[in-house]
């Protein structure tokens, strides 16, 4: 690929064949050269569309980052809920064990009396 007089061109010659001294014709396809971009400056319309695409791409990236942050916050909240469930189960089991110990002591003290 070459840039020539403001345009970009791709050489259509198959490897290992070489060409020398045959320049692209500005703005045209030839037997040896495929026109990729026309010579010239960007039009105001093109610039406006390009700027809009860049702005939308930035918005998409910002939205993607916000979604990723929300996903992480949800995962963190789910982990917190799971830990609270485990803590509740542990406290419940401790309360049951404590109650059973208390009842066992109570029955023992009744037998002694």
At a glance:
This protein is mainly alpha-helical and 113 residues long. Helix content is 61%, strand content 12%. The mean pLDDT is 89.
The biggest sheet amounts to:
3 strands, antiparallel
- Residues in β-strands, percent: 5-15%
Q: In terms of quaternary structure, what is this?
A: single chain
Our count of helices gives 1
What value does the Rg take, in angstroms? 38 Å
Beta strand count: 3
What's the shape?
Answer: rod-shaped
Helix proportion: 55-70%
Class inferred from helices and paired strands = mainly alpha
Biggest sheet strand line-up? 1-2-3
- Poorly predicted runs of 5 or more residues: none
Mean pLDDT: 89
Question: What is the distance, rounded to the nearest whole angstrom, between the alpha carbons of the first and last residues?
Answer: 104 Å
Give the topology string: H per helix, E per strand.
EEEH
């Amino acid at each position: 690929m070459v840039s020539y007089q403001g345009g970009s061109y791709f050489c259509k010659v198959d490897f290992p064949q070489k060409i020398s001294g045959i320049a692209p014709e500005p703005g045209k396809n030839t037997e040896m050269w495929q026109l990729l971009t026309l010579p010239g400056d960007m039009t105001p319309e093109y610039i406006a569309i390009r700027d809009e695409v860049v702005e939308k791409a930035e918005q998409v990236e910002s939205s993607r980052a916000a979604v990723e942050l929300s996903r992480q916050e949800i995962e963190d909240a789910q982990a917190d809920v799971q830990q609270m469930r485990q803590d509740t189960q542990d406290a419940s089991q401790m309360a049951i064990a404590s109650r059973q110990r208390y009842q066992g002591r109570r029955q023992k003290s009744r037998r002694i009396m």
